[in-house]
Queue: 3 jobs
Job 1
Amino acid sequence: MKLSEIARILHCELHGDGDVEITDVAPVEDAPPGSLTFVVDRRRARELATSRAAAALLPPDAPDVTLPSLRTSEPYAAFVAAVELFHPSPAREPGVHPTAVIAATARIGDGAVIGPHVVIGDRVEIGCRAVLDAHVVVYRDVRIGEAFTAHAGVVVREGVRIGHRVTLHAGAVIGSDGFGFLPLPDGHRKIPQVGGVVIEDDVEIGANTTVDRATLGATVIGHGTKIDNLVMVGHGCRIGPDCLIAAQVGLAGSTTLGARVMLGGQVGSAGHLTVGDGARVAAQSGVHRDVPPRHDYAGYPAVQAREWRRASACMPRLPALFRRMRRVERAVGVGSAEDAPGDEG
Amino acid sequence: MKLSEIARILHCELHGDGDVEITDVAPVEDAPPGSLTFVVDRRRARELATSRAAAALLPPDAPDVTLPSLRTSEPYAAFVAAVELFHPSPAREPGVHPTAVIAATARIGDGAVIGPHVVIGDRVEIGCRAVLDAHVVVYRDVRIGEAFTAHAGVVVREGVRIGHRVTLHAGAVIGSDGFGFLPLPDGHRKIPQVGGVVIEDDVEIGANTTVDRATLGATVIGHGTKIDNLVMVGHGCRIGPDCLIAAQVGLAGSTTLGARVMLGGQVGSAGHLTVGDGARVAAQSGVHRDVPPRHDYAGYPAVQAREWRRASACMPRLPALFRRMRRVERAVGVGSAEDAPGDEG
Amino acid sequence: MKLSEIARILHCELHGDGDVEITDVAPVEDAPPGSLTFVVDRRRARELATSRAAAALLPPDAPDVTLPSLRTSEPYAAFVAAVELFHPSPAREPGVHPTAVIAATARIGDGAVIGPHVVIGDRVEIGCRAVLDAHVVVYRDVRIGEAFTAHAGVVVREGVRIGHRVTLHAGAVIGSDGFGFLPLPDGHRKIPQVGGVVIEDDVEIGANTTVDRATLGATVIGHGTKIDNLVMVGHGCRIGPDCLIAAQVGLAGSTTLGARVMLGGQVGSAGHLTVGDGARVAAQSGVHRDVPPRHDYAGYPAVQAREWRRASACMPRLPALFRRMRRVERAVGVGSAEDAPGDEG
């Protein structure tokens, strides 16, 4: 595709030779000949000098470069559009594979692609243009909106509610029983988990992630929220809209996240607490208390990130601090009987 | 259902109007009109004043409330029984779905529900009243007791032994190979994992959890133990009875847990160590050494929880401690050449 | 099998009675009568005195023991060979189960075992002697080498490349979408994940592990690398050859591991960093920066393991250190207004 054609489709301003032939898109560092690349920060435009790319998407105020360029106020968004242009999703023929087992009482909208060995239970309703890949299992009484995508092996348990344009990646389990047991003298008695799960519009959930159903009421995942792989969402969690939850995060029961919360990988949260709107928690942190809105938290237990960084920077210097303390105590003549033995760290 | 009828079924003492019609059960904070709620701690009975619930389960010594109430020495257990009363598990018609693939040499007890596309291997034995949902795979030579429940997509590898009343949630994998490799000059040689897995009675295992088979001998999960989602049980672990293991816990090979051990979410344990009876380990802790019976541990590496809480409370004050040290050193005239630069934290 | 026969097969030197009948293999501590056990360290040969084993594999320089023994310079490797001798993998009849759904354009090599309900997409190529257990799903355009093993429920997404002798354990997902979203004023826009995954020869990947496809280019897992259960490999990671990655490790996008890297369980790594050849990172550590080759790292954030051990050994003594500081300050007459309240830890 000619660069001038791409400029037209992406609504960019063309600088330089529009007849250059573009064959793919690539980041600067890996760009092969013939590729369109991009630079978001105009100060990094000079990196293009050593790139093999054929052209670049640049912000309007970037300096002139030897490559032909497309100028746009949103180079990254234009790059994403270019990726879609060069890698269109293959159209899939609507239809139901003959090995699928679909209850007579289920209703599936027009244009659905139902793969081999899919199982859909009684009274399930699924909107238009759904794609259910091989081996997806939807239990009874589930309701799902339009443009649903479920990759191979997804399991949606009974009664779950799912909005429009939701994507579930392979192996995700939605609506498994919450982990609730009543300790009795003769062992643990299961607390029935009879609540549900509500997944709002435009949510994406990663591979092998599990979202437990509530004991009573519902576990809720707000619209636009994106969840990575191998995440655990405990029973009764209420996750707000437009959150980003990285891989292997674990949210204990009844955790509440506000809007636009960002959790780094492997973050753990105790239950029955609230992370405020726009708060961010660094990877591997352990959240034991409420996090106020628009704060950055980190550490175990998590505190303000700035505070945590300062404190953890002290850690490697602790052995020396103990030695310094001993020296000072000797100079002052203050004894330290309780701490003396083995004090050199 | 009338409150007086519920009182009769749950063996509670009725205080107030027994003709109140109850339509559901709910926790105090979410109780809709018409619901039965509960309070375990009599000092919290006053919270009922602002609840919309129609009636409450209370301990015998709770003060009088404006709502009708049911008195019982175990309000929480009675509430669980009430949940079951209002949300009975739907009866499922026994039968084998025609798409299931069951080896001729397999034996399955009476009353089984075998879902679509289930696969059961040679010489498998399963007791009465089993429920195997869609896509469950049971490899050859597995033996399973009565009242077994496996949700969609569960995989049970060859030779695994499972007791009575065991529940496996969707995507759980039982009997995958342990992670054992012998480092040789030309790479890692796999150590064959030819041991098994024994799951005793009344065990429940969460969604997408994995339990590896032993190299030799068996990985054992004791009766009554409950394991949450996305947990990893390494090869040769021996887990005692009535343990509670929260989500995303990882137990390295040959970890031994005693009876009634409780592990918080994301706890990791090194292998070849023992956590004693009744010990509890706080979420995200890293267990590197034996934990004595009936102790609470926390931290990384895990120590007594009390000790860890005190130590971690010091963390945020470390930068100030370094400043204080510098001040004292100056006052005393003790040099600190080694630690001087960048010491302000 | 007679011990002398085992000596012949394993190329070991026989000491003592070769007519002893061996019925199984076992580690020293669990060895039942009739078993062959092994000791790697000659100083531990005395433990055999209390073992019930019938014979032992020993290094050549081990002292004489009362049991008959087989001497070899590699007792552990000989033991592994003995395990294989006593527990041969059962031969499986090649063939395609009639419930498998295989695209007309797929090509599968000789000797394949294709289990029930397997699904293989368009233009897939699989080499000789593949074993695909029940419910394995291979999307379109995947290429796989010889001697491939996939356990039940494995999902391989479109376009993935897999080398020879690769094993994927139950529930593993290869090629799921990377987690990439562009924050825009009206929510997160998905960055299409159009790259691939390349898995080289002799790789083994654990149960329910997920390996994401790259945004562009490829996620690579080097030859001979072994990955345990429930691991997350983010998009664009490049893992070198012969690495060992323990359970529940999480690698954020574009992490690079060199050759022979070892990561302990639950390690987390930030993205866009490099762990050098032969480096080892202790369980639960959080890697935030490059790790130089052949270094041992530990902690959160990870530093040199030696340094971390020294620093974390100081942690439990911090409350006492604060008390000591207070005492010294009083002795010197230095005030500490800012830190005074609550300073006793």
Note: Residues 95-307 of chain B form a domain with the UDP N-Acetylglucosamine Acyltransferase; domain 1 fold (CATH 2.160.10.10).
Job 2
Amino acid sequence: MNPIRERLALLRREMKNEKVDWYYMTGSDYHNSEYVSDYFKICEHFSGFTGENVYFIVGVESAYLWTDGRFFIQAEKELKDTGITLMKMGEENVPTVKEFVKNNIKSGETFAFNGRLISASFGSELEKICEVNNADCINLIDIPEKVWNDRPCKPATEIYVLSEEITGESTESKLDKIRRVMDEENCDYHYLSKLDDIMWILNLRAADIECNPVALSYLIIGKEKAFFFADKKAVNSNVLNYLNSNNIEYREYDHILDALNKDCKDHIISGRVMLDVNSIDVSSYNLIKAAAEIVNKKNPSLYLKSVKNETEIKRLKKAYELDSVCVTKFIYWIKNAIKNETLTEIDAADYIDNLRRKVPGFLDLSFPTISGYGPNGAIVHYSVSEESNAVLKPEGMILVDSGGQYDMGTTDVTRTVSLGPVTDSMKLHYTKTAIGMLTLAKAKFLEGCTGRNLDILCRAPLWNMGVDFKHGTGHGVGFILNVHEGPQNLRWKFLEGMEEAVFKPGMITSDEPGVYIENQYGIRIENIILCVKDVLNEFGQFLGFEHLTYAPLDRDLIDVSILSNTEIDLINEYQASVYEKMKDHLTKEEEEWLKSETAKL
Amino acid sequence: MNPIRERLALLRREMKNEKVDWYYMTGSDYHNSEYVSDYFKICEHFSGFTGENVYFIVGVESAYLWTDGRFFIQAEKELKDTGITLMKMGEENVPTVKEFVKNNIKSGETFAFNGRLISASFGSELEKICEVNNADCINLIDIPEKVWNDRPCKPATEIYVLSEEITGESTESKLDKIRRVMDEENCDYHYLSKLDDIMWILNLRAADIECNPVALSYLIIGKEKAFFFADKKAVNSNVLNYLNSNNIEYREYDHILDALNKDCKDHIISGRVMLDVNSIDVSSYNLIKAAAEIVNKKNPSLYLKSVKNETEIKRLKKAYELDSVCVTKFIYWIKNAIKNETLTEIDAADYIDNLRRKVPGFLDLSFPTISGYGPNGAIVHYSVSEESNAVLKPEGMILVDSGGQYDMGTTDVTRTVSLGPVTDSMKLHYTKTAIGMLTLAKAKFLEGCTGRNLDILCRAPLWNMGVDFKHGTGHGVGFILNVHEGPQNLRWKFLEGMEEAVFKPGMITSDEPGVYIENQYGIRIENIILCVKDVLNEFGQFLGFEHLTYAPLDRDLIDVSILSNTEIDLINEYQASVYEKMKDHLTKEEEEWLKSETAKL
């Protein structure tokens, strides 16, 4: 019997015990994290589907799994023989989860989910639909826990304190700033479940999620005292002392719901509570709503942590310099090795990963390295597996998107590298992509601009020839934290009611245009750029960007004949700066190669 | 005695009769129009202030007039010896109107205004403040009417029908489209007070407001029947027959409030009424709210009329061609005349106005011509008067912003013209302004872009040297209608909750960057551009722009040494197209001059 069918049978038996007709699961964790630890891979365990953006409903006799277009082929393969129906999100006549619930959950039936895994807004909507359908809705039950025997443990890696020498700002100072906002909002408490916000405020780190140096935790900030919830195993005496010295009480991770529940003797929350309803789960939300008045506001730490302080910027510059050395050495290596060796995408990823591991202060990769050769480069979220692992040839291009976590900061960089002869269209697309990346980085603009103002500077060289890339141009990056961080970003599309964050000096963002030609090749060039002050005059405060990334552009992929003088200057200027930053970190052979690679066009 | 003091004494006598302690007035008309007829210039009559953006509160012993920074100097001069206190909007420690009302209207006092002149949102706020202060609020009383003896008549110029040959779409078809939206919103009525929307829907025009070919009117659209309110004197039998044939009942303009009032026997409105609460006055709003359920929605005509149809576009192209001939002839004339004659700003304005008057199909100017020489060019909303009228010298630059109303459409164009020697900084700023204007017009972008995406293409050449202009980059333009029209515009600043309109093929917008150096000079270059379809491919539908305006750039103001090859091509291409479009409309001397003016750089 297919093991998935066995697991579903166990799940259904327990559903029957609990008198549940439909059980709803998602790929999220309790903190609405972008990446999750194995403990939370419930959908994967019960469906066999390993992709992302997954929603899963199991009924007594049927089961339905939703995912988006990036994963249709993979899902069809992985769901084969499981009896699970694939629901292709966005396709015509495929209902959304909400529509499905509305149309299928009948009067008298019971629909259930673990509300800690579901957002407050979506969970409330599901509750309402059930009410309209006259169905019961149980919003806090973890059925998988009872029938997933070899479920991985909740992670509890050791938490450590980052010194002020590294963070540039004490927890005391950060809490002060947040309490000032609480005062303005006349709030008694501030509730946080976003892991990167909590880590940033407390200057703590751990390794609970792969590539994300965070600890599963909650934080409740009162007017004078705060409460930190984490696994006992993860908290050593050093951390306890540190918390103590900041007037922060430690509590066990699993006691968070008690702290929110007005009927529990250990409850904390009352009065007015500031929180972001878009990042809280529905179970916690319902408890807080019953105990206190909710003041909906984005976490102040979202904005505070996005503006890097001087210490962070100094360390980041070092991190990006050393990280760029890895990328530069990798490019030199692969261009030579391909001439003599048989290499695969995984070999390429391993090589650059190993270079990073040797950098002093290396902690982890900042995400699994994307290494896509030829047509695989055109898959934006490509993740190489033993099955897909392509053999590289001395022709065409490989796209490598990678980064590291160091005690100096978090990096993210993409280079597309030619391995031999390339076509004219590859050169055309690469050249225009490079010009887009460099033009945006060169922008000078008035304070008050958001990503929606600036995005076109990067896309224009591609748009002018009728080409687009279907992803954002840029995202913020954490400091020894998540590689994707808000609130700032670079996107162009207008969405009704969307919030936009203006660029502030000290913010860092990726600048990553690309061209993806299906079944042929993919190009992406990604630098991280730092927002800095430019001139202040009667017209206002102008801002600009500085490159943090210094890895060479591929000379063999640049078509000089289509460049204007200004554009040639733009490339020459960047390439010269790469040579200057890198030359002392390289072997003689590498240095000589880089000199010719970055020589004036 | 100062005549303003006499008028205020009369106003206060009537206030006493009506037991009103404070009377509030604005510069608006009943339709929230940008420009108003003399009938509505109440603030001007009772204060002597002739500027714009004015709010005026008269108390028993004191009086306060608000305006913004553009008009401080003028207001100080005009309010001298009137006893009226100038309230400088935006200056520190100057309360807003709302703050003033909150702090000064005392318990038991009566605050009054004519609610037909005040927006629903602002009027409701004033009512609430009075309630909190325990003061009475009379929201529908026209005290000026009783004491303004020589008040101009409400305009009632003859209304005329535009044939479908001109408009390209029948009223029947336009009403159909609007009724489809009413159906979607399940509405029984749609109430309109915006004059340009009403004129567009009904294919009617008049001349009630200078430069704006509209009639004071209201329109109520029912599911099958509609009601048009206008002055009896303005409606001839031809118009009556036309209305009849479209199942539109004519009613007297002054009966509009009765039609909204559920206690009047002639009332129309009931059920669900679709209207835009941001464009309705508070008196009408209160009446409708009492009689029906309000469905707040932007007028569908706002969007429909912004996308010009094929007939309109064909006529607009002709209008802009002939209008550009006027501008080209004017430039040739002034550059030569200045050598021999003594000319003033008014002479220049008169000359171009007279050229337009000779164009077949000329109806009116589209706004009073702005003619600013030297430092006057730096005043963005400069309006030349006998007092300010500068004498032109054979040096420096004159800025002329002007346009016409023709039976082919509405035009708007700005050129800055050198009259002799100019400085390097004038040339630098003119050249960068020209490049900004042409770069935006050359943009290619995906459908879905709004003005906030595109604006930076125009500003970048200026921003890159730390210069900005403090006005929008572009606005829509009506078709034989108001020169400023929404919903699309070109601006960069993000305002919380703002709505943005995406560009659609058929929309036209101004493209008008500038540089303003206080007390020295002003530069603005304005073309009108038409949004058109570009390629449709796997990446989506690309859009672009076409120039409608073909008036030459000033060769003497272009500094070739700072231009890249691409930028030189951009200017050469535009100048060549100007010569091609204009050459057959000119005298031999003009044509020869234009040929050398537009020759390749």
Note: Chain A has three domains: 3-147, 160-305, 307-597.
Job 3
Amino acid sequence: MEPVYRLTISCPDRVGIVAKVGQFFSAHGGWIVEANHYSDPVSGRFFMRHCIRADSLPFGLAELKAAFQPIADEFGMEWQVNDSSVAKKVILMASKESHCLADLLHRYHSKELHCEIPCVISNHDTLRSMVEWHGIPFFHVPVDAANKAEHFRRVNAIVAEHHADVIVLARYMQILPEDVCAQYHGRVINIHHSFLPSFVGAKPYHQAAERGVKLIGATCHYVTQELDAGPIIDQDVIRVSHNDRVEDMVRLGKDVEKMVLARGVRSHLEDRVLLHGNKTIVF
Amino acid sequence: MEPVYRLTISCPDRVGIVAKVGQFFSAHGGWIVEANHYSDPVSGRFFMRHCIRADSLPFGLAELKAAFQPIADEFGMEWQVNDSSVAKKVILMASKESHCLADLLHRYHSKELHCEIPCVISNHDTLRSMVEWHGIPFFHVPVDAANKAEHFRRVNAIVAEHHADVIVLARYMQILPEDVCAQYHGRVINIHHSFLPSFVGAKPYHQAAERGVKLIGATCHYVTQELDAGPIIDQDVIRVSHNDRVEDMVRLGKDVEKMVLARGVRSHLEDRVLLHGNKTIVF
Amino acid sequence: MEPVYRLTISCPDRVGIVAKVGQFFSAHGGWIVEANHYSDPVSGRFFMRHCIRADSLPFGLAELKAAFQPIADEFGMEWQVNDSSVAKKVILMASKESHCLADLLHRYHSKELHCEIPCVISNHDTLRSMVEWHGIPFFHVPVDAANKAEHFRRVNAIVAEHHADVIVLARYMQILPEDVCAQYHGRVINIHHSFLPSFVGAKPYHQAAERGVKLIGATCHYVTQELDAGPIIDQDVIRVSHNDRVEDMVRLGKDVEKMVLARGVRSHLEDRVLLHGNKTIVF
Amino acid sequence: MEPVYRLTISCPDRVGIVAKVGQFFSAHGGWIVEANHYSDPVSGRFFMRHCIRADSLPFGLAELKAAFQPIADEFGMEWQVNDSSVAKKVILMASKESHCLADLLHRYHSKELHCEIPCVISNHDTLRSMVEWHGIPFFHVPVDAANKAEHFRRVNAIVAEHHADVIVLARYMQILPEDVCAQYHGRVINIHHSFLPSFVGAKPYHQAAERGVKLIGATCHYVTQELDAGPIIDQDVIRVSHNDRVEDMVRLGKDVEKMVLARGVRSHLEDRVLLHGNKTIVF
């Protein structure tokens, strides 16, 4: 794919937004290769994502931003524009369970996921060798009830040092402190191993087995301060039966978890996810 | 299909059950055309469903029951045996929404569902013509806050008079009184328009839209005294997006509701559903 | 939903289309409530669908068409614009199988499908009563090997007389003559009971059982002169196992057929399907 | 899970099989933890799979086989019995594409798949490091049009030397010679990247894009001499739209391929797949 600029916009809906934005690009010869719109009838808010071929425009990203600013101001837009050729920096966090991490690493390794992974952080040393085989630095930052604050101080330092654009909790299994949630609002992606809002919190497969559900699921969402309550990016389910014990659900669920997490991460990396309160628009 | 006797068994697991039951039928020339077993490792309980061709046995249902009783006693079985050629009597209850009722009536009419429908009961008169076109009596039993007890007295009388084997709440939208739940334990089937245990109670699609889920669902379950908490027979989901407003979810959900309800009713009619505490075994 | 004008466009891709169309509506105060774009990288063709609130424009449909024509000419557009408040006229054709017909009739009756059904045509008299209960005229036009030409002459006359916009073959099971295919190009919708291109032609469930597939499906497509080879609008599948005999596949497949057909018809009625050679864009 | 003996049986159906087998195990105190039956109404053949706790029987596998032989003879059974604690030897074959191989290796590494992998054979050297990181020998056996016979001689030698129970073609992309197909009948598992029987042969995603299908799929099947025509073990699909180019289909399809292949391999390793002509029974 040719490099594109990805423009995402959220603003109060009114007549003329599409025309104005379209005209702006047209006037500069901008070739729009993808365009999505959503007008929310309840909130009256408008959302838009455009991909414009970088080589069709006479200027670079900084100049584009400057040129577009007046339109953004006129319509009260929250907006950003990214260059698809600049890989986002994604820090992965994990515990001992390898399935989500191995899956993301393989997608990175095979160039399916377009990103940089400056490092992996884990509270266990279990997955070091797997990570290092991929040529990625691995930081083991242990945590226990007594040193949580210290753990997160070190995590924050590593995150800051590596200039992460996104943090992906690939079954990290620790609750992030409030200030991290706030600082990385809309940029920390978690995978929860249930079909939220069912089975919030610990041991969701045990809860699912207890309730006798016939489908189990996984939910990829942005982390907020309230546990497992952030904006949902993607979800999926898989059928189970009376034959499936908790350990079968855990096994079956892993496949759903890693698929849903990978899809959510990919959507985020491609600037397809726009926040709308506690919900998402996924173009 | 040739008529079969359907034997369902639940008992404490121990060595020799399968052999004993197999031997019993073999000794009488019984031709087993379907057999399912499940041994629950947690509760140590054993579940079994056998279909035996009726014409392969030298006796009828009553004699079969008498002959089998000693085995049932020996193993402490909860059991029943039904003749597939005897249609179960199913009373349908509905309100104003027609999709589940129309779907079940069509499956009955086209002989896909093997049952009798002695009548339909509704708290509204809206669906009378649709029901009567199918040649089925329709009872309009209005209900309001003031006459609930009277409503249920009349409903009970109709149910009793028509000797219902099963009651199906096809979007009936009224909470049944405790004594009905108790009397028809494991024989009242409801469809709830969410993927339980998410969104218990009223307006689940509004709750789903509010939470921003990416899949909506429906749950077919046996009614118990606790609202939307009975044993789940079947569930399914359908994908939604930010584009789908509540009314789209309602529309999309209808297809899931009617499919899941029809599958659950069919499983029940074919004696495929065995209760196991608050869960089901669905063979 | 407020009435909207639905504009669909297909033309060679080039810079400025979105801007020009956006500007046109913006200049007249047109409020765009839905917008979809697709730029095909292989053919270099551009596709667009816009919904504009009718009450936001200062003119009616005819005037809109006249005003838009110069833009269409400039960009070499194939285009049409429809008023969502004008129901399309849909003639349903069926044989003896009722499931697809009953499903569409119920969606029509419950106002889920926004259309008129001026009549149903069938080569059997089986479904007359069901159709007439819905207040729709039923034409029985028998067909056999000897009178095919006469059958289609009568069918054509009925279609013409009722000014059908769309013809839906709800398991009609007869191959339409070439001239009808040509005359109603992109407006005859068929449901084929397999996951095309697998199992073209007769008895697809028998073919599926023979091949031992683990999923069966259905395909909704526009009819062309080549059997089961027209542009696909929608498809879906359902899981089967060794346990499912041909008659089980037939039963399970019915649910897929009616769902897929209803979705395809709905998409067509909402002007969401654009033809692109032998493929479809479904917005 | 406690070790079990897995007995699989296929024989002409007649009264008394279940009783006889049940009695045999019951007489020796055998504790049946899983039991599946299937009676094919068309062919009149009966299929059965039993898992019996090894520690509940007074003898080992060899003695069990000897004791059971008379029953097998009486009923004309094709049968085998395996010890679940003995891992099957699985040789993986791959080309350059890593997704299926990486997925299987991770499931092996994380002990989700219970098997031994004595080696991986590939006609390219691309994946050596990935394989060796898992501690598995990697054999690079190049192939070109001129040396096919030599290639397969070397492959056969490696397979024979490592005493493979199963060969898994994890996107190996070479057609096996007839004698290998015959020798390993029912033990060579392939993943084909289409929903068979659609799109047999090369470049199925290109074929799918060409035809404009709305779902793409993958098929796990036993290899036979006819290309892509062997008994199907499992299949699945994923939704695509007009937006998905061939390269998107390739990417989306990978997830289906690896899931379906892993499920098929798992079923085979657990002795859940019984052959029935060109079809499978999957318990």
Note: The mean pLDDT of chain C is 96.
